[in-house]
Amino acid sequence: MALNGVSALIQPDYDRKAELRAFDETKTGVKGLVDAGITEVPRIFHLPSPENLNSQQPELTLPTIDLQGIDNNLIRRKEVIEQVKGALESWGFFQVVNHGIPNSVLEEMMKGVRDFHEQETEVKKKWYARDMRDKTRVEYNSNFDLYAAPVTNWRDTFYCTMAPNPPQPHELPPPCRDILLEYTEQVMELGTFLFELISEGLGLDPNHLLNMGCADGLAVLGHYYPPCPQPELTIGTQGHTDNDFITILLQDHIGGLKIFYENQWTDVPPITGALVVNAGDFLQLITNDKFVSSQHKVVANKVGPRVSVASFFTTGAIPISKVYGPITELLSEDTPAKYRNATLKEHVEYFRAKGLDGSPALLHFKI
User: Fold this and answer.
1) How far apart are CA 303 and CA 253, in angstroms?
2) What are the residue boundaries of the Fe2OG dioxygenase domain, all occurrences included (predicted)?
3) What pLDDT, in 10s, does the model give residues 129-145?
């Protein structure tokens, strides 16, 4: 066993593809490794250099935006719109509190994800898929980019498209069936409201982004990060930007999310009842870089499991031919378009093919 990722990557007898296939064929994911009692992280998960988990850097605080009272107070609404605008221009991220989704629903959703991943192995295997062709049901695997990415992430995930055509209840797994339908209905309402605020932050009509179809599709990912015996050798989720318009993230109390801001990785400590919102690549594209899709990652942890639920506002998994480009109203002679027109499907296919390799997918669409 190699002592670190560098020696593992250059070992002549290391057949990475064979080890990836062997891991994939178990259909038990990272959780299966932990259940088997491993004490060392397998080589396929090794980073090129160890992750610095305790770097001492200045404290930077992600903006937290309170949506309380915004519905019936125009002054408060304008304040919140400015806060959203400022956060998306600089961080590309913010947290929201008093967003209208009860804590009981948030907790039940996290429990549903945990229960899905912790159900009997033979039952869970029935949901395992690698090609992700059927977007109308939950499909689970470990690392969507297992054979493309340079490093395997210490994470298992289930995926389901919940809008515009939600699955029938019987098509969803029992551990998360009812709560998945309830949670996504409320997330769709919150997302629609946020798109109104974001539109106004751009100086546009409140319905501008909604009329463009930004809230037409929703994909939900239920992530499960098992405890890791050597967290410094691997990563929970490699640094990346999201391939959507916005993401609404529910994370549990474990923590581990980091955002790349002002040339350093900054922690996003969990706040009970809060939801993390971030701009995706397509929001940066249509706003012509006015709002930024920031790199973020999740570190591995000896404590676990960590559970999170990422709701992606996108129609990229659905055969829709709608073409997106920078919004005309945001362009001028002094501010020409920086991106070519593209479909969400094109972006998603490029993103999935290259995997989480550390390079921004948006560069592919630059003019």
Assistant:
1) 11
2) 216-316
3) 987 555 556 899 999 99
